[in-house]
Amino acid sequence: MFKRILIANRGECAIRIIRACRELDIKAVAIYSEADANALHVKKADFAVMIGPDPVKSYLNIHRIVTIAVETGCDAVHPGFGFLSENDEFARRVTEAGMTYIGPSPDAIRDMGSKTKARESMIAAGVPVIPGSEGELSSIDEALVLANDMGYPVMLKAAAGGGGRGIRRCDNDAELRENYDITKREATAAFGDDALFMEKCIVEPHHIEFQILADSHGNVVHLFERDCSIQRRNQKLIEIAPSNFLTPELRAEMGAVAVKAAKAVNYVNAGTVEFLVDKDHNFWFMEMNTRLQVEHTITETITDVDIVAQQIAIAEGKPLPFTQEELSFHGFAIEFRINAEDPKNGFLPTPGRITRYNSPGGPGIRVDGCVYAGYEIPPHYDSMCAKLTVSGPDWESTVRRSKRALAEYDIRGVRTTLPFYSAIAGSDVFMQGEFDTGFMDKHPELLNYKQKKTREDIAAAVAVAIAAHCGL
Ligand code: ADP
Ligand code: ADP
Ligand code: MG
């Protein structure tokens, strides 16, 4: 039905959507900033239009992107994830310009985009939410009273938050006082909105999220869960489907609540309902992401559903091709986010030139990447350069296969999270298969892996040797 889709994104995310378009015989129009002239999504698209010199603002320029979509004859726009994907104004402008927005309605984006609004809607719908403030906090004094009422520890969170930013745990009054202004400043810098709210801190929780698909005919299903408990600084690193932590009964119960949450906001298209689950299997709604999720690949792998193709079909007005009863999953899938970051150095981004790039292959391996040998990773964007999705019939074989695939993966020139993931995949604690969000803090020994030297390390070592030789 759609003939041409503009993809308002870059990198690996844009390439994933281009691939779906190819398989559906739809032309893909890419956009790119000057800094992205050599990016792979530009080469892979059917058409590519330069949107501007600013590396980041270009991808956020609603007017220019909508104009390009109209001028290139697109009938739909896919926002991907990040950038404008949770911007209700963008969704509205795309529709007003006579095109279809591949995602939920602007109202659903707005209602779920603010975490405080989402909490209100979920409470009204009878969905359990994490105990916390009613709406936004108006002052530090209100925060102190509430924290003492609920009992520490508490979480201070940005209402407009995302990507793990603007979240701070506070264990006592002094920490709450200190973090209140810091979190407000962080929220302003990251989201242009300093509104904060408070939640009870769930101690050692599991992050479990349910993938939702909803069509425009009122059908809503879930595609089971993903366990995203392995995180650094509240951001996901490794995701697993299904979760080893859920019983079939709890899976069915949480899945039904996720569907109820989506129905409560008349949700249409793909979305994710995120929950925290404590060790006693109590669960609470945390937030809903009204877009495609980075880790959708593991759900695709265990359910054989192409989520991006479904997003397009739903936007075309087609009914879902399956009922909840017809859906099932098989085996396990693990996604490793391969980031250009140095885990030993606080996960600091390591942009630079990739000198060698060999990705793994063989049974059960899927790679969604956007880099190649000779590519210069620009410093302006997210540090994720590939996603490795490994699948197998059971947990143990999937972990063994992950170890093998990670060892095969060879990226040189910049440090990445690969050797760290090899250490994790090779550890007994990972093989045990159950983790909470404290996993990284509990296992600092996993950071003691050996790393390959980069060109800079070798150059520095040579300089030291020469200096010593010359008696400098
Ligand atoms: P999830 O999708 O699981 O919620 P994130 O919160 O990390 O995971 O997803 C949104 C993040 O995706 C943003 O914070 C941003 O850093 C990242 N992102 C945005 N655009 C892109 C892109 N084009 N390629 C890769 N990552 C991106
Ligand atoms: P984002 O929008 O940045 O994804 P979330 O609200 O989804 O933010 O939270 C991200 C992560 O922060 C969670 O996966 C969890 O590890 C931690 N977190 C958030 N809220 C709480 C809480 N109330 N108690 C414990 N951990 C929390
Ligand atoms: Mg989240």
From TrEMBL:
KW Ligase (keyword) present: yes
PROSITE patterns per the UniProt record, alphabetical: ATP_GRASP, BC, CPSASE_1, CPSASE_2
Domain named ATP-grasp: residues: 119-316
InterPro entries: ACC_Biotin_Carboxylase, ATP-grasp, ATP_grasp_subdomain_1, BC-like_N, Biotin_carboxylation_dom, Biotin_COase_C, CPAse_ATP-bd, PreATP-grasp_dom_sf
Pfam families the UniProt entry points to: Biotin_carb_C, Biotin_carb_N, CPSase_L_D2
EC number: 6.4.1.1
Gene Ontology molecular function: any one: ATP binding
Stretches assigned to the Biotin carboxylation domain: 1-445
Alphabetical UniProt keywords: ATP-binding, Biotin, Ligase, Nucleotide-binding, Pyruvate
PANTHER family associated with the record: BIOTIN CARBOXYLASE, PYRUVATE CARBOXYLASE SUBUNIT A
Protein name: Pyruvate carboxylase subunit A
